[in-house]
Amino acid sequence: MAIKLIVGLGNPGAEYEATRHNAGFWLVDQLARDGKIMLRHDSKFHGLIGRVNIAGHDVWLLQPQTFMNRSGLAVVALAQFYKILPDEILVVHDELDIAPGLAKLKQGGGHGGHNGLRDIQAHLGTPNFWRLRIGVGHPGNKAEVANFVLKPPRKEEQALIDDALMKSLVVLPKLLAGQAGAAMSLLHTDESKKREHKPAPKAAE
């Protein structure tokens, strides 16, 4: 199936704009800029929406304005109205278990404690949608996660996250054309290279 809807997850409002939890918004903002469109608010879809052409493919863009834990309300409203199936939806979100600078693409799976994914899965009644996971790193302490994602990345982290977003934009045309395997291979190759070139640990003296 080709992707017909790209959902960027985040929280609305200026106070959240630069926070790690809004990584999904950042990618959709860039797609709108590249497509020279303005996202507009549509109350029946509970979010900002737009229609953009990416490498010859017409795609809906959506930024839910319901706050993260109610993202599914916006996704299911637009998907049902335009008869878009779950496996034709790509959700872009921040991922704690991936380091800044990396991004991963997959279909299905659990929500991993991510409130946006949890709500989308509940509203769609299936986990069988695509996810573009933008690495933001982990604070190291589970108790600090909520505070961590609602703060802006450090300057060096932001540069790495921006790099991962750019790499993700490069592979999107393949995914939109239904070439999921090629898109994943291209995106994940960078991570493999980084692992290959990771310095060996020093021997104990």
TrEMBL record:
An example Gene Ontology molecular-function term: tRNA binding
Xref: SUPFAM superfamilies: Peptidyl-tRNA hydrolase-like (SSF53178)
Keywords associated with the record: Cytoplasm, Hydrolase, RNA-binding, tRNA-binding
Listed Pfam families: Pept_tRNA_hydro
GO biological process annotation, one example: rescue of stalled ribosome
Example of a GO cellular component annotation carried by this entry: cytoplasm
Reactions performed catalytically: an N-acyl-L-alpha-aminoacyl-tRNA + H2O = an N-acyl-L-amino acid + a tRNA + H(+)
Domain of life: Bacteria
Active-site residues, as the UniProt record annotates them: 21 (proton acceptor)
InterPro entries found in the cross-reference section: Pept_tRNA_hydro, Pept_tRNA_hydro_CS, Pept_tRNA_hydro_sf
Compartments reported by the entry: Cytoplasm
Keyword tRNA-binding: yes
Signal peptide from the UniProt entry: none
Annotated site residues (Stabilizes the basic form of H active site to accept a proton) in this chain: 94
Known EC number: 3.1.1.29
Discriminates between blocked and unblocked aminoacyl-tRNA, annotated site positions: 11
Binding site for tRNA: 16, 67, 69, 115
Protein function: Catalyzes the release of premature peptidyl moieties from peptidyl-tRNA molecules trapped in stalled 50S ribosomal subunits, and thus maintains levels of free tRNAs and 50S ribosomes. Hydrolyzes ribosome-free peptidyl-tRNAs (with 1 or more amino acids incorporated), which drop off the ribosome during protein synthesis, or as a result of ribosome stalling.
Family: Belongs to the PTH family.
Subunit structure, as described in the record: Monomer.
Protein name as catalogued: Peptidyl-tRNA hydrolase
Natural source organism: Chitinibacter fontanus
